[in-house]
Amino acid sequence: MAGTLYLVGTPIGNLGDLSPRGAEVLGNVDFIAAEDTRVTVKLLSHLGIKKELVSYHEHNRQQRGPQILERLLAGESCALCSDAGMPCISDPGEELVRLCGEQGVPVLSVPGPTAAMTALALSGLPTGRFAFEGFLSVKKSSREEHLASLKGEQRTLIFYEAPHKLPATLRDLHRVLGDRNIALCRELTKLYEEVYRTTLAQAAAYYEEHPPRGEFVLVVEGASSGEEAQAVSREEALALVERLCAEGMSLSTAAREAARLTGHKKGDLYRAAALGEK
Ligand code: SAM
């Protein structure tokens, strides 16, 4: 009989947030698959647990996933842990869960904190409907596509961001989404936890002057219904076609992609771009 894969949520800062059940599972499984074994060893030594650890991260998941699956199929149990928060949420794991599903290996949740939900609750922005957007790409064309696709999104938006990229991200969010309310949730559950509720314009200006430190989740107000109607202008859609072509796409593919993302007609974008309209 196959063993079980446990998805164990670990603290995002405060070690007291590991659940008693999380600690019990970590103590009882045959082995732990960890994003960074050094980080998980620290958590285990805090708990007084000694356990076999194998590394499972972005760069080895293709070889390591099938090896973990094989051990599960042979009857061993495994806990999957990321460096912080829930595995599979902007962290490795979704592929392993899929493999287990395909092979009939049971997967159980041992939920813990996740930065996105913690920030949403603290933001003071509408929580009824939201869209988790993870990290924006650093690649210019994917980033622009992602941002353009969000312009008319009415749900509250949640982003993860690294501190050194925060000023550029705030500038881009302000440029594309216009001025909106934002809650910048920093160092959640840690000593210097802080929520800065402001607007995109003010946040962008503030972090030009004050270098950001620590970990951030950005919670941004969704578009108003009026904004949705005139979401992306024709000019912006044409600029997107131009950028996609500059990245190496054919004009036809770029026009189709820009049409899909902006709601403008492919034929119109294609013709206008072919004529060099801006
Ligand atoms: N799996 C994690 C989760 O469930 O939240 C997320 C991992 S992702 C690689 C790391 C990002 O999560 C950070 O760049 C930051 O945006 C956010 N994050 C993690 N811990 C945080 C904290 N204590 N305070 C604020 N943001 C945090």
Protein described:
- With 278 residues, the protein is an alpha/beta fold.
- It has three domains: 5-113, Tetrapyrrole methylase, N-terminal domain (Cobalt-precorrin-4 Transmethylase, domain 1, 3-Layer(aba) Sandwich), CATH 3.40.1010.10; 116-220, Tetrapyrrole methylase, C-terminal domain (Methyltransferase, Cobalt-precorrin-4 Transmethylase, Domain 2); 234-274.
- The chain is built from twelve helices and ten strands.
- It has helices spanning 20-28, 37-47, 61-73, 94-103, 115-123, 140-150, 166-177, 200-209, 225-229, 234-246, 251-262, 266-274, and strands at residues 5-8, 31-34, 52-55, 78-81, 107-110, 130-132, 156-161, 181-186, 194-199, 216-220.
- The strands form two sheets. It has a five-stranded parallel β-sheet, with helices on both faces. The protein has a five-stranded mixed β-sheet with strand order 6-7-10-8-9.
- It is globular, with a radius of gyration of 22 Å.
- The protein starts with a strand and ends with a helix.
- The model has no long low-confidence stretch (mean pLDDT 94).
- Bound molecules: S-adenosylmethionine (SAM).
- S-adenosylmethionine binds at residues 12-13, 82, 84-86, 89-91, 114-116, 160-162, 185-190, 215-217.
Could you write a compact summary of the structure shown?
This protein is α/β, with parallel strands linked by helices and about 280 residues long.
Order of helices and strands: EHEHEHEHEHEHEHEEHEHHHH
Secondary-structure class:
alpha/beta
- Within the largest sheet, what's the order of strands? 3-2-4-1-5
Shape: globular
Indicate the CATH topology of the largest domain: Cobalt-precorrin-4 Transmethylase, domain 1
Regions with little confidence, pLDDT below 50 for 5+ residues: none
Distance between the termini: 63 Å
What is the CATH superfamily label of the largest domain? Answer: Tetrapyrrole methylase, N-terminal domain
Tell me the fraction of residues in β-strands, as a range. Answer: 15-25%
Rg from alpha-carbon coordinates? 22 Å
Strands, total number: 10
For the largest beta-sheet, the strand count, sense and barrel status come to: 5 strands, parallel
| CATH class category of the largest domain | Alpha Beta
Question: CATH architecture of the largest domain, please?
Answer: 3-Layer(aba) Sandwich
Helix tally equals 12
Tally of separate domains: 3
User: Which compounds are bound in this model?
Assistant: S-adenosylmethionine
If you average the pLDDT, what whole number results? 94
